[in-house]
Batch of 3 targets.
Target 1
Amino acid sequence: MRSVPEAFRHGPFSRQSALAAGVTARVFEGVQFRRLHEAVYVHRDHEMTWDDHVEAARLALPASARTTGATRLRQLGIDVGSPFPLHFVVEGDLHLVLDGVFLHRTVKMPPSDDVGASVEAAFVAYCADVRLVDAIRVGCFLLHQEHLDGVLLDQILTEERWRRGVPETSYVLPFLDDRPRSIPEAELLAYVVFSGLVIPEVNEKIALRDGTELTPDLHFEDHDLVVEYEGGQHADDRGQYLADIDRFAAYRRDDKAYEQVTRELMRSPKAVVRRIHGALRRQGYDGPEPDFDGAWLLLFRRLEDLAREARAA
């Protein structure tokens, strides 16, 4: 078996680059390499990561292709959408089919850098394919992290109205809030708002009687209730875990009513709202019951349909 240069053992590569480095064409007929796409290979012993799949697709596509939508957002470290298919955009009428890749064709490339579409363009593309709640979750987080430039986003929405995802993004913008610090927190707030419960303060400091300052995720000030989201990192991160213990101990010393919402509970949105509503009732809330019709149902509909109905109206 012919020796393969080390550079071609640890990730995808193009056939052309291997030939240029002295790898003979006959090697590709053997068992050392696996074919990923046309003229793109990987060594049989290499375990592909998600980033490797993105690189393999990039090698198989024209040099002008860029990642977009959920794929581009994932490259920025945002756990959003499904890892596959990968989303790329290319200018022109290119008809190319790649396994695990969705290729968007456009008459004009969106604002991009050397890797992918701009965050603003990627968010617009993302909104074209998702439900209202998904776009709210991601959009709020992007705003909080200051990833979204409002001026650049407005340019796309006003100057390139023909672009895929523009009507959907325009629809979701009024529902975005830059206060939630994480994607689950943004989702939690959306459940409260769209169910018709009283609107809480979000991530605002409160002072306990002993002078301790805390920043609860949600604070229903008129009912003296705080709600905290507890995700997986709260258990996996020892420092976060200890901080949580201290925080809830401080609430108890202050006789502050609090409710914890776990990642597992979030899988049942109505159960989340009922849990918060029950806590509010124990604190004297006498407002309306949660409404799981009307606005609530919009959360779980595709933005594409909502935007089309809004235009028709």
Target 2
Amino acid sequence: MNSALQFQSSPYTAFMQETKVDLGNGIQLHVESGGDPKNPTILLVMGLGAQMLFWPDFFCKSLIDQGYHVIRFDNRDIGLSSKIRHKGPRLNSYKLMGRFALGLPNDGAPYNLYDMADDVALLIDHLGLGKVNILGASMGGMISQILAAKYPEKIEKVGLLFTSNNQPLLPPPFPKQLFSLIGKPESHDEDGIINHSLKVFKTIGSPGYINQMEAMQIARKLYQRSYHPAGVLQQFLAILCTGSLLQLDKQIQQPTLVVHGSRDRLLPPSHGKAVAKAIKGAKFELIQGMGHDIPPHFIPQLSGLFAHHFKS
């Protein structure tokens, strides 16, 4: 690890430390790391509109306990990382979504997933990590696919969780799940926003595994840490303006494990299967009963699968 960086204790867990990393491209990322820096690193990349705390503490801890140095961070435009102020014309997301589904190119977003992948490549350099194992969830999995293809010298192995390569004609997200994610809360006070978050957790999460009290505490913690809906929309536009990653997948040489939940209705399992099929030698694992989230019930199984993959 780069010893010039000043780490402080994380306000969330006893076993992580936090710092800000200036990437030199106008972006600062908020980063937490835990475990022994001499151990192999797993870099966790989160999904659309999701702060790094969506990587549950218990998940990070179980990877640390299995002998890894674990890093999670807020992507640009979310959490405590830099926000992108965009002055360009407003884009019609419905029009973009239609073109995206058919595999037609879109442009005009303030940035795309290639820019976000460059952020992560710069983060690896600035932290002095050498080669890392990358584990990306959802949009973070898309960013991880780009990283593995574009920066093979930085990525040892690849783990992908409930993600897609956005190739044309994959089954679209179920409308209820998609609109819960990009919809607006009924009111903009703290309770209105927390109720909205709870609805989202319930709609996209693993049916039967959502603990109402716990979900509420998490929603409040996330809201108090940072609330920036404009960033969520801009990240969504970044996905729509990146398009299919199918050709990139064909360039990925690293050992890759793709894991998907059988009850995922935001990105149905065929998305994960498409990714695994496109990456040479990739393994695919379907988790029965899991949705588009990481509930405590599935953490031992998930962390075990990925820890084993990165070791083997």
Target 3
Amino acid sequence: MTASIQELRPKAADSEKITINLGFVDLGQIDLLVQEGFYSNRTDFIRTAIRNQLDRHNDNVKKSVERHQLDLGLRHFTRQDLEAAKAAGERLHIQVLGLASIAPDVTPELARDTIASLHVLGALHASAAVKEALRDRIR
């Protein structure tokens, strides 16, 4: 019997972990609301509070996105994308609010040859070598 071998790719995270510091009283109040069943856990409370604040400032965010000409959401750059830009003699000015990702097979040299600037509000997923190659271009 031949065993089936399957390559597992790591799943791209759909969220980013952050750390916050809270006072003991605030944390206790959150725990009380969780205990009383208003929220399933601390994370549920914090996500809800953040979403409420973002909803409250939605118009301001939209105006800022337009003013700064940011791509909103997920923006993935493949090796083929960057090779096409290089062939066309283009230099990319990447501005993303959300997640910008650069494919793992993009070399540091290709990234430097094609990416003139990189401004990400949110998260940047790229190899350590590509991040280092673009360090002076990341705002």
